[in-house]
Amino acid sequence: MASSSSKLRKRTGMNTELTLEDAVRYMKAVAGKLDGEKTADSEKTAETFFHLMKEFNEDRIDAYQVITKVYELLKGHPDLLEGFNAFLPEDVDPLTILKKQTEEDDVSLVLRVEWRFRNNVQSYRRFIAILYQYRSMQKSAEVTCQEMKTLFEGNEDLFEAFKKYLPADTPGVDDNILD
Q1: For domain 109-164, which architecture applies?
Q2: Which residues partner with 9 through β-bridges?
Q3: 17, β-bridge pairs
Q4: 0.70 exceeded by pTM
Q5: How far apart are CA 146 and CA 144, in angstroms?
Q6: Rg (CA), the chain
């Protein structure tokens, strides 16, 4: 058992090794929470989590991929995320990985908008201006949401990608784009 648990170390600074029983207990906690909240359109399932773990264990996906996907899957469950972190190798920093993912998402959205509005430079510049005003706190989330909805009319996928940058309780975020 020592060889199978040698990879498992708690990230508490105490260098305490985790056991197979710890892993089983954690997997049961994940299954209980994710399967307990399942809805018809929810992709949050224990099966998805187990599949990710299997893919990672078989070296089909790397630490970057598994961490970003697990953090998305377990969003809203800080206890499960903390438990997941305990099983990560000591040299893996999930915050750095998530920051990198966020930066990549930011760049990807800007590039998508730039490409989509390549024949309409004014719309692209408007997007950049709205984004800048929101990030520099010159516009509220609600006003930003409404302006982006208008700007992205006919480009619902861009609005969907942008919504994740707004607080979930922002009026208009959950509305259909073409109210």
Answers
A1: Up-down Bundle (1.20)
A2: 17
A3: 9
A4: no
A5: 6
A6: 20
* Alpha carbon distance 117, 106 (integer Å): 17
22-44 as b/e: b if 16+ CB within 10 A:
bbeebeeebeebbeeeeeeeeeb
For 106-146, how does the pLDDT look when each residue is reduced to its tens digit (9 = 90+)? 999 999 999 999 999 999 999 999 999 999 999 999 999 99
Q: Side chain identity at 49, as an amino acid letter?
A: F
Q: Provide CATH code, domain 20-99.
A: 1.20.1160.11
Q: Residue 16: its pLDDT value, please? A: 64
Q: How far apart are CA 66 and CA 55, in angstroms?
A: 8
Query: Tokens 């990807």 correspond to what residue?
Result: 108
What are the DSSP calls for 125-178, one per residue? HHHHHHHHHHHTTSS-HHHHHHHHHHHTTT-HHHHHHHHTTS-TTSTTSSS-TT
71 near 94, Cβ under 8 Å? yes
- Where the chain has pLDDT below 70, the residues are 1-16, 38-44, 175-179
- Which tokens hold the place of 18? 């985790």
